[in-house]
Amino acid sequence: MDAIRVRRFSSRRDPDSGRTSISGSRTCNDRRLANSSRAGISNMSFFSLVMAATLVACGGSAWEKARGADTVDSYRRFLAEEPEDEHAGTAERRIETLAFRDADRSRSLRAYRRYLADYPDGAFAERAKAGLVEARRRDALEDGSPAALERFWRRHPHAPAVRVIEEQILERRVADLRRSPTIEKARAILDDFPRGPHVAEAQALAEGLSLDGALRSDVAAIERYLQAFPAGARRPEALARLESARADEALASGNETSLRVFLRDHPSSSRVPEIADRLAVALTDRAELTLNAEVAEAAVATAPAAGKAVGRARAVLASLRRGGRRLGRAREAVEILSSPFPLRRVTDLREALSAGDPIDVWEAVREAALSDEPEALDVLLEAIGSQNALTSYYAAVALPAFVSRLRLAPIMASRARLLEARTANPEDRLRLAVIRDAQGDAGEASMGYETSSTASRVALAASVLALLRAADRDDRERIDRLLPPLLALVRERVAATEPPGRESADARAAALPGSARTLFALSTLTGQLAARDALRARVGSLAEELAARLARIEAEARERDARFRTALEDPIARRAAEHSARRIAAAVLLGALREPLARPALERARRDPDPAVHAAALRALSRLGPARRARP
């Protein structure tokens, strides 16, 4: 029988320290046990007792060795060799204790971070976190830079002994504020140190700087100052300046509403006579323009007795009272001549745009292009990405003139900045290209038109716009590149919208309205291209083909439903023509009456963008003769 391998251990007492250490080998050959085995000892209880005693003695040897060294490495070696030993838990706790002791002795950020990374919920975690904060505070003080102090203060605003750093930060900020005072610096001190010793100084500087800036700005800035400092020391000065600024704005606008609002809000102002006199002038102008005696009476009642407007207001009122029956007819004509084109509000146009019916969308875009409200710009921009190619195209073509008429260049620039962040969307790329076109940047616009045509819903409009720009510059190379895919796209759409030919008449009729609308858009867009010399030979035949198909489909649709309509009917254009005809008739009547008091209304109509109204107003003015020179 082979010799039994067991642990052999020995003890040795250190005469200097008095400590006993145990050492031994991992395995040994116990000759006595081997001999006993060879002798035939068969008592299994005795054998088991010997093995248990030997194993306990060997395990105790490794533990005592780790305890003797009492280092992190010795305990880790012990756990690697004896992971199931009864002392494993004690060894793990001792490792944690030694790790924290080493971190606490070094007092460094790195050591504390390492401990917390290994033992985030350990027995010494709170003490390690406190040591970490203290190490950061010490490093910030040693660094001494404003950035280091601010960084520690922001990260640990409630740390022990943070008061010293807080005082240093405040003193440095106050010194910087005194060297170069700004509102932002003063407000930062007030926000971060609301109970600090320099609050009053920062408050005074912030208030003074805010008011100084507001006085150099506009009414809105002064109102913001008053809201920010309701109990400010310079509040009376701000109120006086606000009153003066509002008076200046009302006088500059000459708007009746603005003037009335000032008189209502500032009844005790020293500028009331001046504002009242300007309001009387505005009322007199309206009385002359509309030939309305009641408005002239209001002007006389409003004008101060010592003002400049009272004399003219009384003269206009006297003339209107003497006018008689002829003046009554002239007044009716002036009302028609001065009436604006009836358009829906922008909110109604937005609702129509989202309704989904192609004809409603088309009419909404036409009205938006004629609107005098700046908010209609967003309706046009939204319509540029419409599902309907014609609507998208018309909105894109109408937008530059709309922006120019209402002087909306700054608003367009802000819309462009918003769209630049959303160029992943083909519709937004087309919108941005149209804005660049309106801003005169033809190069950027052309690139935008070409890249936006990747989306099917805007492909037609974008392709047509790109071709029109290429035709304008007679760029043959670009025309040859852009035209073939456009013609292929048009033919594909035509095939998709053609009513089924082999099915019943009811099935054909059901498909007609949508087909008519789509073919109308295709026909109109290709017709735009065919009108250009550079494109006519290659596009004209397709435009004629589309027009013929459209006429056939429309005839079939009207046989099915007499109320069927297409954008060809253009109700907006019909209404505009009717409105123009009424205003022309009014101008002709004023010319026939030869009523001198109607001259202001005709002078205004002479500047009308409608050329027919403009011409009629000129003819009527010529019949009135030269204007009388006012008496000095």
Question: Can you put this structure into words, describing what you see?
Answer:
The protein is mostly helical and 632 residues long. It has five domains: 1-20 and 27-60, no CATH class; 145-235, no CATH class; 244-338, no CATH class; 355-566, no CATH class; 575-624, no CATH class. The chain contains 31 helices and four strands. The chain has helices spanning 31-38, 44-69, 72-81, 88-106, 109-118, 125-143, 146-155, 162-179, 183-192, 199-215, 219-228, 235-253, 256-265, 272-290, 293-302, 310-322, 324-338, 346-353, 358-370, 376-384, 389-406, 409-420, 426-438, 442-452, 456-472, 476-497, 505-530, 533-560, 571-593, 599-605, 611-624; strands at 5-6, 9-13, 20-24, 28-29. The chain has a two-stranded antiparallel sheet with strand order 1-4. Strand 2 and strand 3 form a beta hairpin. Helix 20 runs antiparallel to helix 21. It is flat. The protein starts with a strand and ends in an 8-residue tail after the last helix. Mean pLDDT is 73; it is low at 1-59.
Brief rundown of the structure:
The chain is mostly helical.
**How many separate domains?**
5
Task: Give the strand tally.
Answer: 4
Mean pLDDT score, rounded?
Answer: 73
What is the quaternary state of this protein? single chain
Radius of gyration: 46 Å
Question: Could you say which overall geometry the principal axes of the C-alpha atoms support?
Answer: flat
- Note the total helix count: 31
Question: Which structural class should the secondary elements be placed in?
Answer: mainly alpha
Helical content band: over 70%
Distance between the termini: 146 Å
Give the biggest sheet.
2 strands, antiparallel
